[in-house]
Structure formats: C-alpha cells, structure tokens
Amino acid sequence: MRRQLVIMVKEPRPGRVKTRLGRDIGMTSAAWWFRRQTAALLRRVQDPRWRITLAVTPDHEGLVSRIWPDHLDRLPQGQGNLGDRMARIFRSLPPGPVCIIGADIPGIEKEHITRAFAALGSHDAVFGPAPDGGYWLVGLKRIAPPPATLFQNVRWSTDRALSDSIATLPGQNIALIDELADVDRAADLPINRIG
Fold first, then answer.
1. For the whole model, what pTM was predicted?
2. Number of structural domains the chain divides into
C-alpha cells in the first residue's frame, strides 16, 4: 500500500486560476504566479517515499495538458464543490494512505508531507490547518472506505471549513500538523518565495 500525494491543480489560464489574486495583480500575472508556484512545489515535494498524482481541472484539458510534467500520473477532479472532488479522489485511488494538497501554498516543504504521512501511522486522518480556518492538507489512512458523510455540508471558503471537515469524520482519530497559509490575494504573496 504505497503512499500517494495528490496535488490539486487547475490549468494556469488567465481569468481561470487564482482570480482573487488576479484582481490585485492582474489575471495574467496571477496565472503566471500559479504556474511557477506549482513547478516549484513539484520540485520541492518529490520523494521516493510517496507517489505524486496530479488531480487536474478542467478534466479533459488537464489530462492532455503539456504544462504539467509528463512523468506524473493525472486524474480528473470531476464536477462538484471542493469536498465532492476530494471525496472522489479518496474513493478512487488504490488502498493506502493518501494526502491531498493544493498547489497554492508556497510554504510546503518535503518535511511537512513527511510529518503528514507519519501522523497517518497512528491516526485515521490528518489535517494541515491554515490561519483562515481552512486547511492546506487533508490525509486519510484509508484502511477502510471513507465515510459516506465525508466533506458533506462543509462551509468552504469560511473560517469553519476545517472544523466542518473534521465533523464529517465521526469517531475517527484525527491529527493536526503544521499551520501554513495559501495565497488568495496580493497581501498573501511571500516576498521572494516563488521557487
């Protein structure tokens, strides 16, 4: 049961990715930032201890895109809200521990992923909290199928996203690891931290 790290990515097209950031710095600049940030993230988190898969959207365009490295497996995110898409990922992969992250968190390092998988050794689920009440990572041990309630009724993009998500895992032993922030607006951009 090999460890899987799934990175959720969107085709970096102006006006279709990081639109809140784009309102601050321009849509082309935001798409460029996301593309560079994702490339840097992929370099930082590659490790033989886990397999990296890209969960792409839009589905068809992402599956055939030349933007993402050819050597990485891809799977379509599919339709629905963020919870629907992540639940589908957890249910579709072969058995074993899976962690899902977004590509817009500049602070992610290999050590964070290592800690997340280590937490799954003694916990059913792991979350990497974000300062805004959301989270940058969710992982499941997956020795049993995820509960049918996984990510249902989560108030996404609010300060309740993490607590709501935890509530969808009743009776599960849950670990929290490092807190990291994503980039939504220009004020969130780290100084000199793209690669």
1. 0.95
2. 1
Q: Give the contacts of 192 (CB within 8 A, at least 6 positions apart).
A: none
**Domain with 173 in it: what CATH number?**
3.90.550.10
List, edge to edge, every strand of the sheet that includes 174-176.
73-76, 51-57, 4-10, 98-102, 135-140, 125-129, 174-176
pLDDT tens per residue across all 195 residues of the chain: 799 999 999 999 999 999 999 999 999 999 999 999 999 999 999 999 999 999 999 999 999 999 999 999 999 999 999 999 999 999 999 999 999 999 999 999 999 999 999 999 999 999 999 999 999 999 999 988 899 999 999 999 999 999 999 999 999 999 999 999 999 899 999 864 444
Residue tagged 């689920």 (tokens): 125
Contact between 9 and 38 (Cβ < 8 Å)? yes
User: What are the structure tokens assigned to 195, written together?
Assistant: 């690669």
131 cis-preceded (ω within 30 degrees of 0): no
The answer to whether position 118 is within a domain reads: yes
193 found inside a domain:
no
Tokens of 125: 């689920």
Beta bridge partners of 100: 6, 138
Distance CA 183, CA 21 (A): 8
